[in-house]
């Protein structure tokens, strides 16, 4: 008898692991899984915390508020879901998606695996802009001021990094550090000078990020920005593929190099501004998620950007859930949780980059 | 594609790097762009590719009345008709070979980044004889394989004009011969900047020789690559022989003669 296993079809030829490229999972599947994970995450995390809530109750409360006729939920539980937790969870999802998108675009734009709105100073710039406007008392302009702050910080970081000629990853991060420290000092100073009550708590929530104050208007600002600006970012970001072999290669492929770069920088600053206006400067989401997702999607931006946004949303919702429940009733600024996860990733990337022309 | 350079010139940093160059590379054939380092070859290729706009003169594509300046073409249209392979082309992005070739489809992509022609990448991979590399990681390829994949990427643009900047750099002899034979036989108008004069003599239908940004000579290698021109442009002494099999010119260089040779001082007199 001959071996029957010989008839088993072999789908892929054996390749040495060093030369074989990773298989790319289908985009529609990744997006579907991401969306399902996001919906599940929202329903589950809203139940977590003091007060005994079930997923069914959460779903019924949401459906009732949307206007459909379902069995009513107890008023107290309904208020916890609809007034407290749901706005916070949805804000976290929108901010996570926005920061992950911003990070993914910045990494490609600056050809720097360490780029992130937090590390390059955009988030601190946005915080400073927001805080400065708060002092004047025109809260409507908060996202606009945050955008102006983020854009100014981005331009300052790039100008500082480029002053020596080449824009290397190491220089860019150092320049971002300088800009970010300056903006953080400015933010602290403004709050310290003007706040009447607990200024330290407020300083912390702007510098480390917090979603504790999230309301439905936060959901509107962050969610609106992710849907509108995020869509524009994905559309414009498709052109980032062309930059894989440098600016000249991109131009030869018919891409307007300067126009694409400035369009995307402005969009990233807008996105970061909107996110920081509602949550303060939450770090490392933009750094970690694009790398984690990149191994699944590959570097094509049409695939990478939407999946990174979904993953960022899920990630930040869970990080914020940890931040508010880990030491309950005390609450950690969510930036501490994201830093605990992000800094090891940063360290790995830094080690991996050794030996190349980074500094 | 018909290509006409008429009095093309441009300055970089105040200096005329390309200065009044006229040329008409033959359509469907391989043209060699020759000249010493700094003669303006790369800048001229960028002008022809439309990445730089000439300050003087024009690069015209198309025949007769339909000829239009490259500088006036839309970016996407230009990228669908002209492909450029740069001299040094590396990437730190973890791309597969198929993804690198798919970059050549960017000028054809829809708003959402999808390619209307699913088979174009496969056709380009096959045409460049790189299909067996499709699943490999770009970073794992050898120099010759990378150049082959770059050619596939350029072919995926379905260009009418192919521009190559020193495509044989860092390749071994057999890969150099294979690459130039391949582009010669493509039937696409191709302009390749080349350093190796013997490769140019063996494969090019037409050569354009630059010296200090100006046109030194243009024509068939047999007429252009003469000892007098080589001395004038490259400052070298050479004999031009005839290849025993192809009849094409073969250039044999001589050791440079000592220039202003002061008589060596005998050791004893010091």
Q: What is the averaged pLDDT score of chain A?
A: 84
**CATH class category label of chain B:** Alpha Beta
> What proportion of the residues of chain B is helical, as a percent range?
25-40%
Say which CATH homologous superfamily of chain A is assigned: ABC transporter involved in vitamin B12 uptake, BtuC
How many alpha or pi helices of chain B? Answer: 9
CATH superfamily of chain B: P-loop containing nucleotide triphosphate hydrolases
Which consecutive residue ranges of chain B, at least 5 long each, have pLDDT under 50? none
- Bin the helical content of chain A: 55-70%
Shape of chain A: globular
Catalogue the unreliable spans of chain A: 1-19, 355-359
The dominant shape of chain B is globular
Number of strands of chain A: 0
The largest sheet of chain B, given as strand count, sense and whether it forms a barrel, is: 6 strands, mixed
The CATH architecture classification of chain A is Orthogonal Bundle
- Class based on secondary structure composition and strand pairing of chain A: mainly alpha
CATH third-level topology of chain A: ABC transporter involved in vitamin B12 uptake, BtuC
